[in-house]
């Protein structure tokens, strides 16, 4: 008994479904009705179409519904390099054929287009495969329907999509992100996709609206229609490649120019005299200022786990060059002061290598000091220690008159003996000062020669480094 009731209910359900399908076929085979004195199809005939909203609007279900897609890139809202996410705002337009919404304009008072709520009509489930967040843009609840059954749906789309961002050339980088449009459920047997406009027209329209929008500018929009196969099923998809380029003016003014100024000051600091000015303190203050500059500008630099932008490498190398400059100053300061305080003679190999070969190599010249005429050995006085602690100043060569004066000096007064003692101490002190001055001059020459040599090597390193950076950016600009 239960099985017979179940069979009866199944048969009734099939009859109802067949009757509903026959009614829909009869509706689609006939046009929408219009009444005299009314503009457009009647409400009853349109309501009958609304009742068929769950079904794909095709008389023959073996024929796929063709949907056309085009969009206009209105704005680039954000690029998150760390999470590899691109946020854009699109004006999306979709077309498809509704075979049940057909009427004769002559019978409907010349009405060729009406607007209907999209929630009451079947619409293709077109999505973007790269989306990673919900669309929070304002929904457009209506569509335009032509008397031939063509539907146009214009809507705004805030698209948060995944994109493989390459930031090595930041701030002169160019990104190529893909938007893949396709149906989520319907295969190519049900829905086929094609672009509504050519890719050149979409690119031209987008450039007109995106021209004054933010730090990004549109380079081109490319596209390709293809078939996505997953297992035994196939989906029709359209892939758009949106190529955008960053405007680097903001980053050049806020990052590159201040960094270049600090490096220029570091180079000019070599012209400070190392023997009379504390050049090391100046360079340490400069390094501290550069570190604070990097901390302030850290938020402007993109950061990813895949790589480091070239501008980050540029800042790191600039900081390393400043540290090398400070180390060079420490070495020169040690040569100029530490060695002279120890009264060390300049080694012979240092004189040959530094004061001769390196000085000639860098064309270093220093003013010669005026040397006093050398006194003969016979004119130099000798200080002798006489008996009973009496100091006698004797010349190198003695004459009979000098012998007589020396005998008188032996019997001189105690004040004269004290003066002779002071003269001897003064002579020793002047001799020590003269020797110290000569050592200081020698080590100063060594320090100046090394300073000139290291300064030119430092300039060579900075020049080569600047040429490499500029060449890489020029290559990128030429390729873009």
Question: How would you describe this protein?
Answer:
It is a single chain. The chain is an alpha+beta fold and 480 residues long. The chain has 2 domains: 28-247, Acetylcholine Binding Protein, Chain: A (Distorted Sandwich), CATH 2.70.170; 249-370 and 381-398 and 405-480. The protein contains 9 helices and 12 strands. It has helices spanning 2-29, 43-50, 199-210, 249-268, 279-296, 310-341, 348-361, 400-410, 414-479, and strands at residues 65-80, 85-97, 113-117, 126-128, 142-146, 150-162, 174-183, 191-195, 216-230, 233-246, 382-385, 391-394. A 6-stranded mixed β-sheet has the order 3-5-6-2-1-8. α4 (249-268) runs antiparallel to α5 (279-296), α6 packs antiparallel against α9 (414-479) and α7 packs across α9 (414-479). The longest helix is centred in the C-terminal third of the chain and has 66 residues, at 414-479. Mean pLDDT is 77; it is low at 14-29 and 369-396.
Provide the descriptors you would attach to this structure in a database record.
Acetylcholine Binding Protein, Chain: A, single chain, rod-shaped, 6-stranded mixed β-sheet, 4-stranded antiparallel β-sheet, 480 residues, 22% strand, alpha+beta, 2 domains
What can be said about this structure in brief?
By secondary structure, the chain is an alpha+beta fold.
